[in-house]
Amino acid sequence: MPELPEVEALAAFLGERLVGRTVEKVLPVAVSVLKTYDPPLTALAGRPVAGVGRHGKFLDIATEGGPHLVLHLARAGWLRWQDALPAAPPRPGKGPLALRVRLAGGAGFDVTEAGTQKRLAAYCVRDPSDVPGIARLGPDPLADAFTLDAFTRLLHGERRQVKGFLRDQSVIAGIGNAYSDEILHTARMSPFKPTSGMADDEAAALYEALRTTLRDAVERSRGQAAAGLKGEKKSGLRVHGRTGEPCPVCGDTIREVSFSDSSLQYCPTCQTGGKPLADRRLSRLLK
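and the corresponding structure tokens:
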């Protein structure tokens, strides 16, 4: 799933190619992709793009004097830029194409979604806050206002495992399964550590790991073409998706805990005092 660093890079990539150019049309291809009807997608046509931004994991394409096209790529969505889109309109079918955005002159991009679970979402709204997922977002973790004090207040207001705390978009915007694994590995903290009662030095270490991990990932992604961002993300991950490989810090074998629809990865030596976590939902450290 694209998370904050990849969406930040996609916003920059699209901004360089869209701003100042006019939208010719936006064509939904998959039945499930469009989540709004007022204003209609036709309200985007004929308007220059004013800017491209990010809200958590949401992409925001703003038009001059008009609505915003907001995209959430979900777990398996991506976009493909083309300097010359096919002249014929796309046909709905069983392929991955979900949405096409064509600019005046023929360039544009396709939004695709792999797999059978269709969760990719497109919204045409007057204001980004009209999107329910954006309206409920917590603070952006790379914003200047996201200080250690602000983070500590959020942390001490929760009573759950730290992995779930980091992933909750209503608490902190933009962090998903992959970067929460990376943050916790950098902080040398178990994913199942309770947030309640966390010592001040532990909270400070977690905050520093969060900011450093995300900033480094954004820097690695900066300037990358959309087609190369997935590979760049994977190459930069130290534990997530690397079950069975040696930890790059201590050399221990990276372990996994599987859930019904996802998994997490961690290093026992770096994060759990050498003890493996039981591979079951709501696992606790084995004694």
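(Above: one complete record from the training split.) The chain is about 25% helix and 20% strand.
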